[in-house]
Amino acid sequence: MVYVALLRGINVGGKNKIDMKLLKKVFEQVGMSSVVSYINSGNIIFTVNSHSKTTISHILEEAIHTNFGLKIKVLVRSFVDIKKVIHSLPEAWVNDKQMRSDVLFLWDEIDDESVLHKLVIKPEIDTVKYVPGAILWSVQKKYITKSGMAKLVGSKPYKQITIRNVNTTRKIYELMQGITCY
């Protein structure tokens, strides 16, 4: 099956630096195949047939700790999981000079629509939608400082979320599609 590993908090602000070429080798050493990385923020697409998503996460977290000395949370999503998010994502949502649109991938512990009640959402500014596995968020950049979602950092749910912008999420899906063609 095709999966993506979304690593939380690597190569951000000069912290938790991991070289993607070395990370790719580590994934291969622990049994992942067709390994492809996308940008430095920790998006690794791969195939593996013999493990659950939870088991894969544990294997990868341990391998990263052993090889890089870092305790990094790894969220694993299947091609089907990402496809569902993509199909729920409005086509008009982009990340450009006028709009910021993100996908907030949720750890299983908080993957429920009730997570929206734990967030500060200003409906007149933020467009927020829950889909299984993620929260979709869009805001006009001119209002970003007034957005309730801008206060996400430091909130309780934030520790169980990893964020990718919609452009990155769409590219991950495209790369996963390429691997499924083999």
UniProtKB/TrEMBL annotation:
UniProt xrefs under InterPro entries:
DUF1697 (IPR012545)
**What PANTHER family has UniProt attached to this entry?**
BLL4334 PROTEIN, DUF1697 DOMAIN-CONTAINING PROTEIN
Pfam families referenced in this protein's UniProt entry, alphabetically: DUF1697 (PF08002)
- The name this protein carries in UniProt is DUF1697 domain-containing protein
Q: Look up and give the organism this protein is from.
A: Shimazuella alba
Q: What is the lineage of its organism?
A: Bacteria, Bacillati, Bacillota, Bacilli, Bacillales
